[in-house]
User: What shape does this take?
Amino acid sequence: MSLRRFLPDRFTCLLVSMVLLASFVPCHGRGTQIFNALTDVAIGLLFFLHGAKLSRQAVVAGLTHWRLHLLVLASTFVLFPLLGLLLKPLLQPLITPDLYLGVLFLCTLPSTVQSSIAFTSIAGGNVSAAVCAASASSMLGIFITPLLVGLVVHVHGAGGMSWHSLFEIVMQLLVPFVAGQIAQRWIGGWVAAHRPLLAIVDQGSILLVVYTAFSAAVLQGLWHQVPGPVLLGLLVVDAVLLAIVLVLTRYGARWLGFSREDEIVITFCGSKKSLASGVPMARVLFGSHPLGAIVLPMMLFHQMQLMICAVLARRYARRGRSSVEV
Assistant: This one.
């Protein structure tokens, strides 16, 4: 058996590199202003390109499968936040208050698009439904996530979300996305033909935010506040959340009578959380909080969901081939 499947991918290595760079060479002063400006440009460009890439035809075609989409959205925007709040007595003793706030924020995020579709395809699921479910989650998340953050953060006792924060989300994420959708008729084909460019902007914007966020957090004493046992506790918290949602989405889909192909979509789309949307949103919504602690639960969950869902996708694929052979 090849050891490569157990090794982290290149993007994960880059994320770790940014954390290490920020830990030893944090940006400050004028450098912080420059990196923040670069990050704003990269995030705006990222959502513009996503808007130009997203196929409206595929989304419209998939809206007929409304039961599946409702279940995915309920898992993403209802089940996750409720778990984050209901499991507070179990989770909070394991981590610091700032990290728990980061876990609550993680629970409000939309689903991923690329990895949800990729794992659905590998597992032999309903790819067109996955495209629609993940895309709808990503688009609605621009509106729903800030509102959920206001609710769960208020319940947590850390204040609410200001209208200024919502306005910044709209200007930084939604306006470029809508501009991309408008420009799709002219540049959609070019964007689709240059997917590596989108990947560079996607990953580059995340790396910039991670570096600036962890730089500020390190200067505020992040690693003195997150010793080894607390980091281990955070891994346990992320693992518990992911395990509960995977079990509930998988067996909930079966109980509700969905086909195997649709069960795969619900399992993968309903259990994912988007790092690409979460990092820029955290930067806007939690500007007054230690961003390193807010982003860290999301980064660990991102890698965990990729590793576990890769194993699940291969299991689904093997079982699908076995049933066909029988």
User: Anything to note?
Assistant: The CA atoms of residues 247 and 267 lie 8 Å apart. Residues 10-318 form a domain with the Na+/H+ antiporter like fold fold (CATH 1.20.1530.20).
